[in-house]
# Entry
Amino acid sequence: MVWLILALVVGVALAGTVIGLVAVPARREGRELLTERADGMVSSVTERRRGKVEADTGAESDSGHSAE
# Structure
């Protein structure tokens, strides 16, 4: 079990190192991290999530019950 946890920690450390060596300098140079397609996907998911939150909030206020 100790080896499994150690392997997970090493994997996370390697992932952090890759992010530090690749993504951070690219962002400092002003390059975008996501492609236009990926950015569009993130935007659409965010819009859908906002719509659901607004719908849920509206349903709670219409029912007269508070979430408390």
User: Anything to note?
Assistant: The two ends are 42 Å apart (CA to CA). The chain has two helices and no strands. The longest helix spans residues 36-63.
